[in-house]
From TrEMBL:
InterPro entries reported for this sequence: CheY-like_superfamily (IPR011006), OmpR/PhoB-type_DNA-bd (IPR001867), Sig_transdc_resp-reg_C-effctor (IPR016032), Sig_transdc_resp-reg_receiver (IPR001789), WalR-like (IPR039420), WH-like_DNA-bd_sf (IPR036388)
Organism from which the protein derives: Faecalibacterium prausnitzii
Every OmpR/PhoB-type domain range: 135-235
Response regulatory domain ranges (all copies): 8-122
Identification of the protein by name: Stage 0 sporulation protein A homolog
Record-level GO cellular component terms: cytosol; protein-DNA complex
Keywords attached to this entry: DNA-binding, Phosphoprotein, Transcription, Transcription regulation, Two-component regulatory system
Its biological purpose: May play the central regulatory role in sporulation. It may be an element of the effector pathway responsible for the activation of sporulation genes in response to nutritional stress. Spo0A may act in concert with spo0H (a sigma factor) to control the expression of some genes that are critical to the sporulation process.
SUPFAM superfamilies, per database record: C-terminal effector domain of the bipartite response regulators, CheY-like
Length: 239
């Protein structure tokens, strides 16, 4: 994977509403490869069909428990895992971590906390791989963007952090630099095929992105609007 947002995620939880919410939030954060299951049996089949780069496992499942499932899957491959549980006993948390899990989060939890923990696990677990596949810096005039670490370096040396959504948008635009990327293509790149409802958010994220990329966000030199169609990341010399 080129960045953590290319990682394949497997989420196992018997609560369909929570699964839908997790998928929505993770896709909104830029993760595009998410598979979900609601049982241990389905999780094992999913794991065998396509090995994930991160597992998010509930502990209480209808046909077993997340601890046993984790041991069975980790016997096949050393995949990092985050446990979710409604049980907040220290003994459960320590037991899960003692099995080799990377983190443990007690329900109910703040979604932003889960997103941060997922980000940190992936960065820590795949640091070497990410460094090998690190994309070249994106130069926008006097500003330089590190697409791997999601950092914009200003001429005076100050740095600005990109959000996951801003990074996903910029990656899509950079891949097609010099060409128009439609509104639909950008929404799909960030929020997946089921992006309906997010279209109105796109302009807000583009405005915030311009504030970090452009010396004059109100008169953008690089991130241009193509009215009625989409946006284009120019090379700077276009009028």
């Amino acid at each position: 994977m080129d960045t953590i947002y290319d990682a394949k995620l497997l989420i196992v939880d018997d609560n369909a509403d929570l699964l839908a919410l997790l998928c929505e939030q993770l896709r909104g954060a830029g993760y595009g490869h998410i598979r979900t299951t609601q049982s241990c049996a389905a999780a094992r089949a999913c794991f065998a069909a396509e090995q994930p780069e991160l597992m998010i496992l509930d502990i209480n499942l209808p046909d077993g428990d997340g601890f046993s499932l984790f041991r069975a899957l980790r016997a096949k491959a050393d995949v990092p895992a985050l446990f979710l549980s409604a049980r907040d006993a220290d003994a459960d948390r320590l037991f899960g971590l003692g099995l080799g899990a990377d983190d443990y989060l007690t329900k109910p939890f703040l979604m932003q906390e889960l997103l941060l923990r997922v980000q940190h696990i992936l960065q820590r677990a795949y640091r070497a791989e990410l460094s090998r596949t690190k994309p070249a810096p994106l130069q926008l005039g006097e500003r330089c963007v590190d697409l791997n670490d999601a950092i914009v370096t200003l001429p005076e040396g100050k740095t600005l952090a990109l959000t996951a959504t801003e990074l996903a948008l910029l990656r899509k635009l950079a891949e097609n630099r010099g060409h128009i990327v439609t509104y639909d293509a950008l929404c799909a790149a960030v929020w997946g095929a089921d992006y309906y409802g997010y279209e109105n958010s796109l302009g807000v994220h583009i405005r915030h992105l311009r504030e970090k990329l452009e010396a004059e966000p109100g008169a953008p030199q690089f991130l241009r609007t193509v009215r009625g169609i989409g946006y284009k990341l120019t090379k700077g010399e276009e009028a």
